[in-house]
TrEMBL record:
InterPro entries: THDP-binding, Transketo_C/PFOR_II, Transketolase-like_Pyr-bd, Transketolase_C
Name of the protein in its database record: Branched-chain alpha keto acid dehydrogenase E1 beta subunit
Lineage: Bacteria, Bacillati, Actinomycetota, Actinomycetes, Kitasatosporales
MF terms (GO), sorted A to Z: magnesium ion binding; oxidoreductase activity
Domain (Transketolase-like pyrimidine-binding): residue spans on this chain: 6-181
Species, as recorded: Streptomyces sparsogenes DSM 40356
UniProt keyword annotations, A-Z: Oxidoreductase, Thiamine pyrophosphate
Needed cofactors: thiamine diphosphate
Amino acid sequence: MAAQKMSLSKAINASLRKALENDPKVVIMGEDVGKLGGVFRITDGLQKDFGEERVIDTPLAESGIVGTAIGLALRGYRPVAEIQFDGFVFPAYDQIVTQLAKMHARSLGKVKLPVVIRIPYGGGIGAVEHHSESPEALFAHVAGLKVVSPSNASDAYWMLQQAIDSDDPVIYFEPKRRYHDKSEVDTAAIPDPLHAARVARPGTDLTLAAYGPMVKVALDAAGAAAEEGKSLEVVDLRSMSPIDFDTLQRSVEKTGRLVVVHEAPVFLGTGAEIAARITERCFYHLEAPVLRVGGFHAPYPPSRLEDEYLPGLDRVLDAVDRALAY
């Protein structure tokens, strides 16, 4: 199939369909993923085409969903479990961090758990409490888990394929406010490695690092800065565990400045680890401290206030100006 333009949500659907076609051991499971096609219609049409034994509507029990996925993986299946919303994952947190993440090490490498957990995450959709969280740092902190997030349809398609093919458990965070954003997807391409960062826009004066929903904001900021004669390089991290520090280091050695952007609160967020590592690696290249832009250290607010909570263009450009002022 030639490259075609599709939304991020359609790319995930196409990727799941391809995985189901390629491997009879792939199963999809979650709340309302079958007959309804998921609350965001990501799995629309899959149960109709592949049957109820491969696209499974589960009870409203996240711990049970992940626990069952672990059992299926132990029996040779490759389950793709959906958590309906980010804030619903915590009943399954124990299963994820004490069983899923640890089984490979506990068995001295004899047991593999090829489980993918899909989690729509982040804000910007006007949702109520527990529907707009960004818990990626909680999972990135846990050894034994891979944690990734696409920012565009092409990555959404290929990164999910790679996650399903992985013998290690992968937490696949889907930026729900980007579900309808469209871009070119070439399903015959050779994709980047799953955990490789990508320079989304080259620049010389400062590096903006982001992932998932904030890559678009970073690119918009780079475009706005260019109108004022500032050249910003945008690095799409794509993976939060492991992080491709080599690509980021090369960029910072060139630009001398780094601003890290994510939706999650700045306090103990992914940006904190990036700031520390890049300061260690690039100390003699840095012209300014590494700055971070993110959410506030407060519970996610009601929808009327989320535009104030979420880091937007102005907050990113303010950090850029502060970094360039050193």
